[in-house]
Design a protein that fits this description.
This protein is an alpha+beta fold and about 300 residues long. About 25% of the residues lie in helices and about 30% in strands. The strands form two sheets. Strands 8, 9, 10, 11, 12, 13, 14, 15 and 16 form a nine-stranded mixed beta sheet that branches. Strands 1, 2, 3, 4, 5, 6, 7 and 17 form an eight-stranded antiparallel beta sheet that branches.
């Protein structure tokens, strides 16, 4: 990790190495935290955070599903994000807000624990590698199933439930692959370990629905809107495992991963990144860097008073 200088904690900027929590914090023992992954880019008009308001709204939804009251309003968190980027003199960067139950109680009943909030930012390149973005990655379907909606809320982005993704990521890494794909409890395609999945067949773009136990990805939503404006047909429907093997193109999306092609699944060759994947990569790049006037409302420029949506 490339360290920065300051982290925002509970309303104040502190030195990077002073941003600590107590070893008996509830979130450390029971995974009672929610978080976001956000990116800022060096855009046409300055440093811009991509869909910041949407990320903060999802953070609030995740917290609400775990009965956590965030002690700061959304605008306060927006200013915290801006402040961290400015204090660290960052341009393009990755931003991690986290809300966790802190020190004060132990045991499974958490509602008396204090709620702590932090925002960190640092320089972080392509999550699946620059070569992965260019040539595509090799993926394997994990033996671990994606958590079900009736197990814990799959639509929340919570710390504890990422143990599911960690197991899948380690398993497929040890088998020599770049990424994991998880099926849900019904055996249908769900998510990657940290990304949403898109399949292209006969010119139609398909992606699993929210009911398939996926995370409601903000990059996923962005690509669906961008593809729709570009004239592509985008369908949300259940996808069988075998449909991955016979796809014309597959790509994954996420804040960290951005838009990354998959060239192989379970040793079934999909091939080099296809024309639709390449087109959407280019369109997404134009959007996040402020070159597409149709989507400038998604950019929240650091230091601006106007809030992007």
């Amino acid at each position: 990790m490339q360290e920065a200088e300051k982290i925002w904690m509970n309303g104040s900027l502190v030195d990077w190495h002073d941003a600590t929590v107590h070893v008996l914090s509830h979130g450390l023992h029971y995974g009672s935290s929610v978080f976001e992954g956000i990116r800022a880019y060096d855009a046409e008009g300055g440093v811009a955070v991509f869909r910041l308001d949407d990320h903060l709204a999802r953070l609030e939804r995740s917290a609400a599903q775990y009965y956590m009251d965030i002690p700061f309003p959304r605008e306060g968190l927006r200013q915290a994000v801006h402040g961290v980027i400015t204090a660290n003199n960052l341009g393009a960067c990755y931003i991690r807000p986290i809300v966790l139950r802190g020190y004060g109680v132990m045991g499974l009943f958490p509602l008396d624990a204090p709620v702590d909030v932090s925002v960190a930012a640092w320089v972080w390149g392509a999550y699946l590698g620059e070569e992965g973005l260019e040539k595509g990655i090799r993926a394997k379907i994990s033996s671990w199933r994606r958590i079900g909606n009736n197990t814990i809320p799959a639509t929340a982005k919570a710390g504890g439930q990422y143990l599911n993704s960690i197991l899948a990521k380690i398993e497929t890494h040890k088998a020599g692959y770049d990424e994991a794909i998880l099926l849900n409890e019904q055996g249908l395609v769900a998510d990657g370990s940290g990304e949403n999945i898109f399949v292209v067949k006969n010119g139609v773009i398909m992606t699993p629905p929210i009911s398939a136990s996926i995370l409601e990805g903000i990059t996923r939503n962005s690509i669906m809107e961008i593809a729709g404006v570009a004239g592509y047909t985008v369908v949300e429907r259940d996808l069988a495992r075998a449909e991955l093997y016979t796809a014309d193109e597959i790509f994954v999306t996420g804040t960290a991963a951005e838009v990354c092609p998959i060239r192989e699944v379970d040793d079934h060759l999909i091939g080099d990144p296809g024309p639709i994947t390449r087109d959407l990569q280019a369109r997404f790049d134009a959007v996040i860097h402020g070159r597409d006037p149709q989507f400038t409302h998604w950019l929240d420029y650091v230091g601006s008073d106007a809030q992007a949506r």
